[in-house]
Structures
1.
Amino acid sequence: MVTFRSKLSVCRSPVNPTLPTATLFDVAHVELAQSAIDQYLARLTSINLLAPSPTAFDHLQAQLILLGVVAAVESYFRTLLRRLITLDSECQNCAEDQAVTFGAAMHLSKQMMPEALLERVTFVSETSLVDALRQFVGLKGNLPPDLLATFRDYAVVCQLRHCAVHRFGKLGVKNAIFLGLRAHKPSLEKPLLLTYPALQNAIAISTGVVKTTNNFLFNEVLSRLPAATWTAKWGKDKVAFIPYYRLFADTVSSTKSVPARDVYNLFQDQRSKFSTSVAF
Amino acid sequence: MVAITNPSTQVAEFEERADQLSLELIDASLADGEVFRRARTKLLSRGAKLLVGPRGTGKTHIMRYAYAQAMREADKPLALYSTFNRYLNLEPLLKKSPDARQRFHSWVLAKLLISAFDWLSDARLDETVLSNADPLFSRASLAQLVARLERGTGEELYEELGQRLTVDHVLKAVRTLLDVSHRSRAVLLLDDAALSLADEYLVAFFEIFRQLKTEFIAPKASVYPGSTQYGPTFHASHEAEQVHLWLSVEDTEYSQIMGDIATRRLLPEQIAGINPDILELLKYLSFGIPRTYLRLLRELLSSRQKSAQQQVNGIVEAQTELIRAEYDSLRIKLKQFASIVQAGGDLFDKAVQDVAAAQSADTRVRNIVLGLQQEQNRSPLADRMLRFLVEVGLLYPLQPVSHGPDRKYDRYIPHLAFLWRRGAFGRTAWSTGLTACIQAPSAKHPIRREISTLLRAEGLVRIKLDLPPCQNCGTERINESQKYCHHCGEELVVASMFEECMKLPLGKIPEISQAMVRRLHDDTQMRTVGDVYASQNASGDLQRANYVGPVRAGEIIRKVERVIEEFLS
């Protein structure tokens, strides 16, 4: 028996244009050698330039800026972890028994292969961030409280982003539960009105998670390198030190990292203080 | 002319700051008077309270008195005392640590727990009763945590101990002490809680204050006048009763209370040696601030001027300059408010000029009040400007009055020492004119002005924030909370007040001679306040300079510490 199906039109939809996705990506792009944080900061500046003027603020445009910033944070994590896996032998050990798709194995360059490992990983909650660091950097024990605090604050920003991406800014029940149902109950299914200060704060929190992670991981991976790596002579040690420095150094912001040699000297100073049980 | 005879060649040795006095002396030296009696009662009564007064009004004194009284009398509640005057040591964290607020939270809770240990030792009781109550209750670790957080270090201790502290731990400690002391309720005396130079911490502090308010705990915090809101969740008028401690010069008991303060802190022969008219004059010139009154008396007793008038002129001039310098120092401490502080200074000068002119025109009436019209569209920055003047004690706020619809006036008394120096009370009867005016009936209407008439157009333009331009492209910032440049997108750098203080060169400390600074420069690495403050062995490092031994090194360290304390208070 044939079922009745009406053939009415309530809105007109013309023919779909074609979208040649294969031509939409910049194939001439060569991955720059800049550090992950430099990349993030440069992207952030570009996004900030797109932000609505505070004197003619637009809430919807503000949501789009927020999406851009969260994308930049996620890209920071992917870039950093990928390069760490390539550079650091302990990170490589962590990644060794993990599988990538056949397509990635066939077509990605060796350097980009770790990116395929990260495809299933998300960076939107405290748990997912902690898990990613444990899984790919091999961190053990408690993570420092300032790092966890930035993860928690950033997870809140991700909830707002979730509202913006999936619900055109309206607050869903799951988001409200995460943010605290009691305080957010009146806002359920209400649209997000990102103000200028709120957008600035969300961007600052996102940048905070990047900078705190960057500091933490730099210290973590550098400190666990075998003691035999270091001779306490810059001329010999720079071969091992500089790749790590370049991976983490901020060379673009107005509060940029001090030069490699100065950081190296501080590092050796702290190592020698530690070996003689002097507080640093 | 009135002659003064110094009671003896001995220098009057008394301490003006209550935080430097022993509990015994605190106990014996508290002045009576309705304002203080009421404040004492309120401090030990139920319910949250804010003890309001500018510096030197006796907030610390009265809190420590209440502490000693509660310790002594079994029918009083358990009272714990802690001070938060070093909060600005944690200010650099705001610029470099994402979890600065949580660390500040731990610092406050650790200080509260230490106050519980202090209570046990003051009561001569065994501290193990508290240390056995919870694994985190270790006096030594808590003290170390506080010291390290104040120095911006102590990562490990914060991880092990600090981040685990919660308000519940404080409640638990208080309950333990209530059992030990057989008392049913407690008051927490939280001194120096104005936290006026770090808004982020102020909000966090009053969040804790709110949580401490329970059926068996009444928190009491001492704050500066002028503020009415302490963060989004704490509204002073709803959450706590305000107890005003700043004595009005118009109070009928004023002279007696101030006299009482001197009697309790000076030797009778010292007081007897001062002409009564001058004693009376100094009471009013100190403008309700006991600490100022004691300082004026001390300076009078050690003055080497010949005539009494010269003596009083000298010390009052020094006093007004000191207050003015304290006010002006806000421009350095809070650079974003530099123009506003300057505009406030101009407004105050003009107000003094106008009030003094009106008062001197007819000294048969008391005409010392300035009415300032509440404009409909007064900006928050103009309010902030007036608040700075009140916080420092240059303007005494009275209840606003209404002169009809849309004509409400805020009322203030400008500092009497400034009016006196401007000849408001007649030049001829220099020692009695002020006292006579205060006792005269008050004028029917105060001098009425508007901010715009006091400041005029050129002053009004200064009511703006001084925000440094973007360090990258030079574009002016739009507001204080802006974090990224709206023109080039660059992150805006914020300077730390604490770090500004640490950068002060030793040569800028007036009490260290230039010769000493040169020697330190030649023989040591000590250049700035921060070098001395951060040194692991400051005394040893300073002693590398010629003619600097342990005593001189100790003096330099004390002077540096005083500068830090002054800068950050």
Note: The radius of gyration of chain B is 25 Å.
2.
Amino acid sequence: MLVSEATPAQREQQFKAPQFLLPEKPLVVIEASNAWVPVNVGDLWTYRELLFILAWRDLKVRYKQTVVGIIWIVMQPLLMTVIFTIFLGSLARVPSAGQVPYAIFVYAGLVLWTFFSGAISVGGQSLLGNSQLITKIYFPRLIIPCAVIVGRLIDLCISLALLAILMVCYRVPITWSILFMPIPLALTILLALGFSMLTAALNIKYRDVGIALPMLIQLWMFTSPVLYDVSLVPSRWQRIYALNPLVGILQNFRASLFGGIPFDWLALAIAVFITFSLLVYSAYAFRRADKSFADLV
Amino acid sequence: MKPIIRVNNLSKQYLLGARREAPTTLRETVTGVMRSPLKSLKRNGHQDQMLWALKNVCFDVQPAEVVGIVGKNGAGKSTLLKILSRITEPTTGRIELYGNVGSLLEVGTGFHPELTGRENIYLNGSILGMSRAEIERKFDEIVVFSEIERFLDTPVKRYSSGMYVRLAFAVAAHLEPKILIVDEVLAVGDLNFQKKCLGKMNEISAEGRTVLFVSHNLTAVRRLCSRTIVIDEGIIIADGPTSEALRSYNDLMREKNVDEKTNMDKRLARAGCAVRFTGVSVGDDKDNEKWDFMSGDMIRIEVSYRAFETVSDLCIYFALRSGISGEVVTTVKQVISDTELASGYSGTAIIELPNVPLRAGDYDPYIWLGSINGQGFDVLDRDSVSLPHIAISSNATDPHLSAGYFSIPAHVTLR
């Protein structure tokens, strides 16, 4: 068999053959960057397919080689609900709010919490976990924590659908206030994104973050009204308590679903403010850390 | 002509070990942040702990050029590739790219072991910058090229390493960027597959795409690249036609071969061997030491050795291996003595290869000293004393006359 490799003379000829027009301006300029340059949205858009394929990969890998597969998405909050209803609702007699049974009250909280805690615990480790990609190929690094959130959105949708079914089963009256539900929902997603971006970037340099994160998540769960109603917190602590953006989010999420639970506009305003501040700060911190990811990983 | 890549005054600085002593836990940095402004000023005092991986590198690449980048380990070539691929940022300087870049710093970037071959084609393709539509269009071609049709729906973790590499390269080979950056991917896979890769690279350059090829494999560089850039300690020391650039690279390596001599001296001081090599040189018939030759030249290899114990039946064995595959290309064996040699005996063996029929490429000499019954005493090769390649060039312009290793005498009669 002859392996035909081009000789120098042939290569000379080849150089002259195909030509294409080069653009006037460079497509890409590589320079030491400035952290104050805002997030490159155009770049993110170009790589949107990668975002979805990474999210799809995370989802696929998570339930690979499991027996019940996708059913786990529903099982997780459902089992938690059963456990908490028995131990907290029945035994410890933690009160519900409004006229909703404790089971559905706690399930509503767990839907958001399962999404949020799952997203931030994976999101915080996401850059480190993908170090193999970061050191070998270019793409906007922001895609990695974003993909984690997008992947978890599927879970969120499925558990929301189950919530709707449960509400029908428990004959919870549905009111117009449900139209308000997307707002706390969107805030949860944005908060998870902002938090993931920040912790993922920090975790590259300070591995302490990854170690502290599970504990922080535990603490966050107990300082948020996931398993209990806001009214359980003494009124003199309410102000400080509401600094936790999840307080405003969970309270208003339940208020939009169930009658008899009041909206808390101040807590919501605080949540909006904190969420967006965190997003802006995280984007800045991420950009700043971005240039050294490949060197530090 | 207008260049497609323009690299201007590029420098990259790394912090050395000092980095580890610098704050790496949150607590240390929190206290550090308080003194932050002072600290950033002080940083200039740490110059000695900084390393310039690249310093003021400038070069242009014309469209459709295939440029080799060679240098020792740690010379800065990987850093250059990483900056060009936008994986890490330069400290100073500027690069302008007038075409989209595809970079292959390894094969199989982002492959997930749990996913099937089919799923990994999509995943890897997107990571390398292909659109979904593009992947779908080339899917069948990729599968055929990779030769893994039967295992398309098997998780990649069950693949043999050969299958894994073939699939990974198949995806990468179907990238269509204007500028392709390739790093040592040919170092993997079996010989046939390496040949396939080289062929594909030829094809890519023939299509008029620009390729930057980083490799230790001088043979591959010589075959593929018309121009070569030699980097040493972060500085470009040669940039020009491959044959000239590689000559200065070989000179550089030879200068660095003082190393080799000290290595050799150390070996002399080492106890344990009955017989040891004490020197080696490669040169032409006029006794000039050199390591690169033309096909048909005379190659003269001179090795000296010394016995430290009484030995009998000493013989010397010489082999040339292909620099690309490591296959033994040819061997020479000579019995030095079939009687006893006294301790302290020293001698020299001169191996002359007249009109060497080797075709263009790199060949690694392997010289072995031992007894006739196969007991080895000492070995000289690339691994033991970092012997340089013997580089053969040829004037043959017909690709059909540069394939393989040997020119064999042949008489063709036409009737």
Note: The two ends of chain B are 51 Å apart (CA to CA).
